Amino acid sequence: MRYQTETIHEHGTPQKTGILLVNLGTPDAPTPSAVRAYLKEFLSDPRVVEIPKPVWWLILNGIILNIRPKRSAAKYATVWTKEGSPLRVHTEKQTALLQGYLSQRTKAPFVVEYAMRYGKPSIPDALHRLKEQNCQRILVVPLYPQYAASTTATANDIVFDELRHMRNAPALRTIKNFHDHPGYIKALANNINEFWMKHGRPEKLLMSFHGLPQYTLHKGDPYHCECHKTSRLLAQELGLKPDQYAISFQSRFGKAEWLKPYTTATLKEWGTLKTKRVDVVCPGFVADCLETLEEIAQEGKEDFQHAGGGEFNYINCLNDRNDWIHALTDLVMDNLQGWLNLPDAAELEQSRERALDLQGRR
C-alpha cells in the first residue's frame, strides 16, 4: 500500500483537536446531471442497497440513473435557495455556530469542519483540511440521531478507509447516536411547542422518520427501536397521550417491504377519516432537506388533503436553533473529555530546542 505524503513534523507546534460534522449529502445543483452524479454515488453504496452487486449494477445503470435524475432534479428545484442546497446551508451554519459555542467552553485549540457522505465537501477532503491544521485528534459526529448501518456506519467506513492511507494517522473517536440525548429531546419539544404557541395544537402529531427496508431490523440494525424511543421521549416531553400522536416512516423505495407504518399511508388514512388538522415533524433530521421540505411539506400535504383531510402543517427541523446548538455542543464536549488540553508553551519550546539540538549533533 502506498501512503499519502505527510507534512514533516515540526517540534514545538501545538496540536489541535478536530471536530468533523457529517451529514448525508446533496447534489451540487438542482440539475439532472448533478443529481445523476449524486445518485450514482449514493445508490452505489453497498451499505445503502444490499443487493448483489452485479444485479444492482444493471438495475442502477440501466434503469434508475436514466429515469430518476430528471424527476429528482425537478423536486430539488422546488426547495433550492439562493444560497444553495438547504441541507448544505443549514450544515454550514451549524458548523459555524458550534465553533463559536465551543470557543466559549474551552480555550484549547480546536477546529470544526463539516463533510457530506455523498457529494461535496467530501469526508476525505475534510479530514485532510483538519490534518493540515495539525489536528492530531479527530472526533467524528455523524448528524444522524438514530444509528443505522446505511447512515452512521457508512460515514464511518469512509473515515476509517481514509485513515488506512495515512502514515501519521490521527487519534479517532466517533459518536454512534444521540436519539435519547436530553438536550436533543428538549430542543425538539421546544421547537414544536413554539410552533403550537403561535398556531394552536393539532388533532394529530405525526413523527415521520426516514424509512429503511424491513430486513434491516431482522438483521440487527437498531434504527427502528431508536426511532421509537425518540418518539416516546418526545411525546412525554410534550405531554401527549398515545392517541394524540403517531410514528411513521417515509421515503420508501422499490417493491420490498419497508419499516411500517408508511408516512404516505398514514396521512391518506387520516385524510379519509376527515382529520381536521395534522402537524408533521421529522425528528430523524437535524437539518431541513429534500426529504422534509419536498416529500413531507409538499407531497405529504397533498396526500393528506387530497384524501379529505383539513389543515396540514410541517414543523421545520432544528436547523440552527440556539437550544439545539447548545445540545450539540454538550454532546461534543462529553465526547472530547481528555482531549481539550491547553498547550504548555514552555514545554513546546523545550521540545523544539531538543529537536534542533539533536539535528545539530547529527
TrEMBL record:
Organism field: Sideroxydans lithotrophicus (strain ES-1)
Residues at which Fe(2+) binds: H210, E291
Keywords: Cytoplasm, Heme biosynthesis, Iron, Lyase, Metal-binding, Porphyrin biosynthesis
PROSITE patterns the record matches: FERROCHELATASE (PS00534)
SUPFAM superfamilies, per database record: Chelatase
The protein, known as: Ferrochelatase
Entry's family note: Belongs to the ferrochelatase family.
Entry GO terms, CC: cytoplasm
UniProt-listed Enzyme Commission number(s): 4.98.1.1
UniProt entry tagged with the keyword Ribosomal protein: no
Function summary: Catalyzes the ferrous insertion into protoporphyrin IX.
Enzyme class (EC, first level): lyase
Gene designation: hemH
One MF term in the entry's GO annotations: ferrochelatase activity
Biological processes, Gene Ontology terms: heme biosynthetic process
Record Pfam families: Ferrochelatase
Catalytic activity: heme b + 2 H(+) = protoporphyrin IX + Fe(2+); Fe-coproporphyrin III + 2 H(+) = coproporphyrin III + Fe(2+)
